[in-house]
């Protein structure tokens, strides 16, 4: 605009110029847009799509869908606000390098909560949260442990094999354990995001393990 900041602020207050927020949009092809529409249509109630029903198209309640997602978390922060009493001392926090704080990836699974006719929560929808960790042997000796001592370390990379392992070892048994008995024999869908490390819907090993879990069919 080639004007000073104060002049631009005055023009903004006088409403001679306006401020907008420009968001970056995804570049979707025709195939991507078609896939989005098909995905939305699959989540509509079939009975609401007929002209004889007399109701507008409505979305399904999706009570049979379990959403899973991964998230990185740092073990601590450089600065952290705390509230202490006058008798408490500030905790001593230290690390080797403030720019290389260790982070851990967690896998979480959840579904929609259920309520009975009286409004009481009978299922909170929380399936579980698991950390991506692995047991490795120490390569060097230190003051804390000997060499080749087994240690529990966070996984630095999560590939398709690790995703399949956690789905089979943790997610499916947790769904089978916490799912309501009344909905246990319905098809349950595990909804993944678009990460490349996730397994395919018809992964052979996943499908074989799936048959061994009672009540989990989708």
TrEMBL record:
It comes from the Eukaryota. InterPro entries: RNaseH_sf. GO terms for molecular function: nucleic acid binding. This is Transposase Tc1-like domain-containing protein. It comes from Triticum urartu. The lineage of its organism: Eukaryota, Viridiplantae, Streptophyta, Embryophyta, Tracheophyta.
């Amino acid at each position: 605009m080639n004007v000073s900041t104060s002049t631009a602020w005055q023009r903004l207050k006088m409403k001679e110029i306006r401020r907008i927020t420009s968001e970056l949009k995804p570049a979707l092809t025709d195939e991507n847009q078609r896939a989005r529409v098909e995905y939305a249509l699959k989540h509509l109630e079939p009975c609401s799509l007929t002209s004889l029903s007399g109701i507008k198209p409505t979305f399904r309640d999706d009570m049979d869908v379990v959403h899973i997602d991964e998230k990185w978390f740092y073990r601590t922060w450089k600065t952290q606000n705390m509230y202490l009493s006058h008798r408490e001392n500030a905790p001593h926090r230290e690390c080797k390098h403030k720019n290389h704080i260790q982070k851990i990836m967690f896998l979480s699974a959840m579904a929609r909560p259920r309520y009975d006719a009286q409004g009481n929560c009978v299922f909170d929808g929380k399936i579980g949260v698991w950390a991506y960790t692995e047991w490795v042997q120490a390569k060097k000796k230190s003051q804390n442990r000997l060499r080749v001592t087994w240690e529990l370390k966070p996984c630095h990379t999560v590939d398709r094999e690790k995703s399949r392992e956690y789905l089979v070892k943790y997610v499916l048994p947790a769904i089978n354990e916490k799912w309501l008995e009344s909905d246990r024999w319905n098809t349950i869908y595990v909804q993944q995001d678009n990460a490349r490390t996730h397994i395919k819907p018809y992964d052979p090993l996943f499908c074989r393990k799936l048959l061994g879990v009672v009540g989990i069919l989708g």
